[in-house]
Amino acid sequence: MRPLEGIKVITFEHAIAAPFCTRQLADLGARVIKIERPGTGDFARHYDERVHGLASHFVWTNRSKESITLDVKRPDAIEVVHGLLADADVFVQNLAPGATQRLGLDDDALQARYPKLIVCDISGYGLDGPYRDKKAYDLLIQSESGFLSITGSEGEPAKAGCSIADIAAGMYAYTNILAALIERGKTGRGRRIDVSMLESMVEWMSYPLYYAIDGKAPPNRAGASHATIYPYGPFKAGDGQTVMLGLQNEREWKRFCETVIQKPDLAVDARFCSNSRRVKNRAELGHLIEEAFTALTARQVIERLEEARIANAHMNDMQAVWAHEQLVARKRWTRVATPAGEIPALYPPGITQEDTPRMDPVPALDQHTDMILQELGYADDCIQELHRTGTV
Q1: Is the pTM of this model over 0.90?
Q2: 197-204 vs 164-187: helix axis angle to the nearest 10?
Q3: In the predicted model, what is the mean pLDDT of the chain?
Q4: Please, how many CA atoms are within 13 Å of residue 5, restricted to the half-sphere of its CB?
Q5: pLDDT at residue 353 is higher than 80
Q6: Residue 303, CB-side half-sphere exposure with 13 Å CA sphere
Q7: How would you list the strands of the sheet with 232-236, edge to edge?
Q8: CB 238 within 8 A of CB 295
Q9: pLDDT tens for residues 282-337?
Q10: String of b and e for 235-263 (b: at least 16 CB within 10 Å)?
Q11: Could you read off the pLDDT of 99-148 as tens digits, one per residue?
């Protein structure tokens, strides 16, 4: 039995934050019913066509779910929503600010009618405060949270290459829902959860915030290098390939000098004898390191780093990750069905011996509408009428 089997989740979701949250719940066995707009559905379905005609974001965040379409501006559709909520455990939404209130599905109304229901609202800035009604997308939250101010190269900020703010909010929503389910098992009561993308990202920004406390200078933009530890980042080998490496303490610095760059005198050089001094003189030290690497291939550099027990990594592109030998060795890839055929998918992180991960298909828009309505007791002629009127 998977941990969340028997848990029913109803969701008004689009884009990434809420779908990523609810996919984690589905991975653990929850039944997730995704309510979508008739005709178009979740707009993330149309971000691109890279996965055999399907959108890359959508297939990532929506496997193992059921899709029902409802025009929630129609009273008949709201009746269906309440039919779904009557025995639901969790309601998740990341609609535009104020949308659920206009539909009569805000937390106060839901808690009065369904006291055991866990209601999770995911928004850009939270359900109150001066930014409550402000639109928020991933890149904008990366900017508001200060992430862009420390990311990139000198003079030019850079966004994260994936939807980091959405992912942060989705994961905090997921973990809060799990905690609320445990609490409900003790108290019998539901809970309201208010997750803000801004607050999720600011939590992840706590190290640079503390580094810059009391008006101190923030970490400099350092490209792919670490802003406050050195050497820690990318270095070119003699064959033109890049090796990532990182040192954490003075023992490692000594081994690095002796074994990797084979310049033992640098270990006690006054310019480099502490991390703060290495950071201060990073340009000079970087030149010395790459000079030592000039005569070596990337493979030889990594062999020396391994010998010295210095952390290192390849700078892989996407194709290299698909074929990563560690993921292959641990059998972390499987295949899931989609409306466009099977695609590879990574098993959810976290391995247990008790059960196999849930890896059900990515749903087509409207795929489960009639089945779900039948479960709710709607007769076939009533279902046909809902289709005719555009309610579903």
Answers
A1: yes
A2: 100
A3: 95
A4: 7
A5: no
A6: 5
A7: 232-236, 242-246, 311-314
A8: yes
A9: 999 999 999 999 999 999 999 999 999 999 999 898 999 999 999 999 999 999 99
A10: bebeeeeebbbbbeeeebbbbbbebbbee
A11: 999 999 998 999 999 999 999 999 999 999 999 999 899 999 999 999 99
Interval 375-392: pLDDT, tens: 999 999 999 999 999 999
- Specify the pLDDT at position 384: 96
Q: Which helix (H) or strand (E) holds 336?
A: strand 333-336
DSSP code for 259? I
The phi and psi torsions of 181 (rounded to 5 degrees) equal: -65, -40
pLDDT-based confidence at residue 65 (cuts at 50, 70, 90) = very high
Region class of 220: left (phi > 0), else alpha (psi between -120 and 50), else beta: beta
Neighbours of 381 (CB within 10 A): 8
Domains and CATH numbers, the chain: 8-205+339-388 (3.40.50.10540), 232-315 (3.30.1540.10)
312-320: Cβ within 8 A, 24+ apart: 312/243, 312/244, 312/245, 312/246, 313/243, 313/244, 313/245, 314/243, 314/244, 315/234, 315/242, 315/243, 315/244
Please tell me the predicted confidence (pLDDT) of residue 154: 85
Q: Which residues lie below 8 Å from residue 358, measured CB to CB, with a gap of 6+?
A: 2, 26, 27, 28, 29, 64
The token duo for 383 is 């279902």
Decide: residue 125, CB within 10 A, 0-12 exposed, 13-18 middle, 19+ buried: buried
Confidence of residue 97 (pLDDT cuts 50, 70, 90): confident
> Residue 192: phi, psi to the nearest 5?
-95, 130
CA dist., res. 150 & res. 160, Å (int): 11
Contacts of 364 (CB under 8 A, 6+ apart): 67, 339
In contact, 55 and 49? CB cutoff 8 Å = yes
Q: What is the 3-state secondary structure (H, E, C) of 127-190?
A: CCCCCCCCCCCHHHHHHHCCHHHHCEECCEECCCCCCHHHHHHHHHHHHHHHHHHHHHHHHCCC
